[in-house]
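User: Predict structure, ligand iron/sulfur cluster.
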Amino acid sequence: MTKNNKPLMRVENLCKYFKIKEGQILKAVDDASFDIYKGETVGLVGESGCGKSTTGRCLVKLEQPTSGEVYFEDKEIYKHKYHEEFISQHPEENIPKINPDQAKLDYTKDVQMIFQNPYSSLNPRMTVKDIVGEGIRLHNKKIKNKELEKTIENLLNDVGLSKDHISRFPHEFSGGQRQRIGIARALSVDPKFIVCDEPISALDVSVQAQVINMLKKIQRERDLTYLFIAHDLSVVKYISDKVIVMYLGNIVEKAKSEDLYKNPMHPYTQALLSSIPVANPKIAKSRKRIVLEGELSSPINPKDCCRFSDRCKHVMPICKEVKPPLLAYEEGHEVACHLY
Ligand code: SF4
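Assistant: Predicted complex:
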């Protein structure tokens, strides 16, 4: 991993709100800030609906953030600062448009996404050649058919498929093979940064490890940087250098992977980690699983307090009144909790 002083991707106070109906705003991502350095894999974890996929979609421009700033290689990708009161009063007007100059950035080539569902993310009417070649043609209009085919064959080889697969359609492949096609498509434009949105969760357990190992190998070979979104913490532990934990749209803990797994601080992270199965029966016997009680709060018009307070066994009066800020507990380890 090459670590420069400046992050490859810098996200500051990112918010993505959805208007449900008059006066109701779903705060899917609320004030998320993080840096990702070149060559790193950053795991983004949390339960379904915590805002992790929406965060990833904002980074690849599949969603337009409501406010916040995103920088890639120090270039401004989004910069929209709106007052929260204005957002709540005029949500429909607060859809910032991309600055045309910013749109000129070759961002779509540098930042790609691997989607969760390999069944719905590939067009069933397109052959592998068309799916993988689409992006290459878009960025290299003069490419000759022979060269295009050779490039696609090499990409298929890199992801463990054969050149004989080039003329086939998605329905002719298994789930694992389809995800390999999705990975080849992401790699086709030679990106620098890939958002991997739960890339193995729809696959059979037997092929999950193969796909993860392949992603690691490709990362080493191409010096890639990943944002790896997942709810399976054992996978995140295996692949990530750093981990970000989200709960109901907020980042509640950020740390280097080994620090987070050794010393989880936020009660939500502790509960998540306690549910990871341990192979060693002796250790497994001595561990106690933390079962979360209480209902998951609604992300619609959330109160300005700790969003985990309805389920936290350490809850204190302040937790119901003041939202805990994300503060550094030690170098590289930040937590948002009034216990610290
Ligand atoms: Fe629990 Fe309070 Fe910490 Fe929230 S701030 S996680 S309610 S102790």
